[in-house]
Amino acid sequence: MRTDNRKPRIMRIVKFKYKNKPAWGLFREERIYPLKEAPFKKIKPFKKSIPAAGVKFLAPAQASKVVLVGLNYKNHAKELKMRIPKFPVLFLKPPTALIGHKDSIIYPKGVRRLDYEAELALVIKREGYKISAKSAADYILGYTCLNDVTARCMQREDIQWTRAKSFNTFCPLGPWIETDIKPASLKIRSYLNARLCQDSSTSNFIFGVEYLVSFISGIMTLNPGDVISTGTPPAVGAMSVGDTIEVVIEGIGALRNKIIKD
Prior knowledge:
Shape: globular
Number of strands: 20
Structural class: mainly beta
Helix content: under 10%
Number of helices: 4
Mean pLDDT: 94
């Protein structure tokens, strides 16, 4: 797994399967300290920990909705020869699309092209409606990696994107939530079978994180555990059965998933 050179921080929040049930914990030095409750109000870890090796990671969210931005990188707009949008272009993925780190992405029957899209995502900490940009940070639990898997052939066929974006397994998220990070200038990359594909920075954002939280919450109430994803940089591309795709973001880590047959 590729990661940045920063040392692991003490506030990496993971969701994992423990005794066949979902649980939350803190990831520290390859060990997980289970939390006494979900991390949206208070973060209270138990003193005892378990080895992270062999633990099944779940998508670190409790989403009533996953809100994504369709075009949010200046260099991606340039690549597509599109005008810079005046407002964020939004769409939704259902929570049933969420999977975790190392889970498999299913290549659906009938899909002729399946694409990866590396994205920085954030997880909402508390309920909010009509949040100001100045107070947006108070509503963010932290940041994680997201892969906006897309059936590109269906996206081109349909007027809207719901079908192309919403298949089960089309929203890998993880491996954890990094709480101590500034999102304005992070390197973001994708690797297909260890080959570098996307290579950009969140400094190319058209709309910053605070603006997105404010804009989206002006439309819909954001609930604890909801996910907002901030768009993908240039050079999205196709995946095939058997491929491994990694989304790597500076200061967070790497989200890795393999493509399997339906």
